[in-house]
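User: quick one
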Amino acid sequence: METLIAQLLNGLSLGSIYALIALGYTMVYGIIQLINFAHGEILMIGAYAGFFAITKLELGFFPALIVAMVVSVVLGIIVERVAYKPLRNSTRLSALITAIGVSLFLQNGGLQVFGTDYVTFPRAVDKVTYKFLGGNATITSHQILILIITVIMMFILQYIVHKTKTGKAMRAVSYDKDAALLMGVNVDSVITVTFAIGSAFAAVAGVLLGMYYQTIHPLMGSMPGLKAFIAAVLGGIGIIPGAMAGGFLLGIIETLVSGYLSSAYRDVVVFGLLIVILVVKPTGLLGKDTHEKV
Amino acid sequence: MKRENLLIGILLIVFYAAVFFATETGLIPPYYQVNLYLMGINIIAAVSLNLIVGFTGQLALGHAGFMAVGAYISVILTMKLGQPFLLAVLAGAAAAFLVGILIGLPTLRLKGDYLAIATLGFGEIIRRLLDNIDYVGGAAGINGIPKLTNWTWLYIFTLLTIFIIKNFVNSTHGRACISVRDNEIAAETMGINTTYYKVLAFSIGAFFVGIAGALYAHYFFLIQPATFSFMKSFDALVMVVFGGLGSITGSVIAAVAVTFMNAALINFGTLRMVIYALLLVIIMVFRPQGLMGTKELTFKRLFGGKERGGSANVNDKTSD
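Assistant: Done. Structure below.
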């Protein structure tokens, strides 16, 4: 029972990080139907920005989080403007390959600049272990912090998407780009804003991931990025609540598999799950069926 | 037309003999020989992937997985069961073909990005499974593989791959595949069994890249699951896109060029991948249709003769 609760809590914190990353994927996909493979690398840059803000600028955790978000947002906008915008009207394949190219560029640029060693992420927040259920289960302050930050970020996103004018424009563009354009929505700036929001979420996820694993590395973004994409597909890509649900679900499944089966088969199960979902219900758990017309 | 084929045949034999004597007499230093072999293997991988991505229009990112199947099965046959090389290569390819059908049947119902992710997932699954099978050495892989791939085998298999895929593409089946790429719904309306042709192209591609895997394993002494990571699939995709989706000669040229580029940049360390990625983005932004588009490089095109019939160029419209 204790291990189950511990696994579930672990899964929940890992899952909330996945959910934060998955939100970025799902928003970008919802707007321009592009799998932004570079998303994991934007997360990595965010984690390094947070790392330098804490160690070099000696900032606290929350100011460092803000610095990380700003750096990632700038990077996200640059990537969108330089690499993706010129390809807006070309084939999906060219856009996808460009995204993989940008991802490789940032990964290897990171290896070049930051070195190939794992760096210890500073403990900006004290790790306190709390006991509950009569001392049978424990939860750390880091897990609580990850959960609280994730919930706050999700509320902010819901507010932006449903209550602001920008959010309305985003929904309009994802529904029908041409019609939105005709209604006077500046599609280009909406796309840029989407990338900016997604990148900010990635930065938060990067810093939290650094805190969770206590190390960072230039390649740290690729695997969580891929997993978060699976989470987005699991919940139904393009659907914001789907990405959240998918992220939590994937995190819990992953920790349960490594806890009760074997960590060696963790990734096999995760990818297997992706394929089962894709084959059985390609639109995801919360997705609606759409039929292609000629 | 006949005279042109004869000319190509003679040129191919002369090239084979020239390289054969150059390697035998040590005229080509070992370092360049490694790249020569890589070139052949890359050509097979690129041309076979072009059949799936370029001609049939199915974006598959799991090519390295099939390469791994070919490599591991062939090595098990030669090393553990003591079978001859040719049988091992063909068995590896056949295994990749079967895995291709198994994977293709469920996933090819998916379209575009979903298919890309599903095939990427399958590539990863194959790699992770190999990581956990002790019979083939787990993550450490197999080393001490006998060096059975020689220039003759490499040359024969490379030519066979190009020849068979070229003829497949120009056959009824190939045209069906192209029609699936151009408009799947229209193809289905015309009575083409789209699932059948997608799986067919997918598993034929898997078959040939299985050969490439077997040749690779028996030249480089060591195979590990990490050798066949997503990067290898991506390398093949880069060659296909560089050369032009739907151009076999384009893939060949791109495979040769990319191998050269990798060899030239080898001293730059991690900077090599930075340059590689940057080049890729630049090419995609400025010339998304690749080097050749869907055109083929022929003698007529080279020497300015008039194109007759244009049977190989029915799909030129995308390169305009």
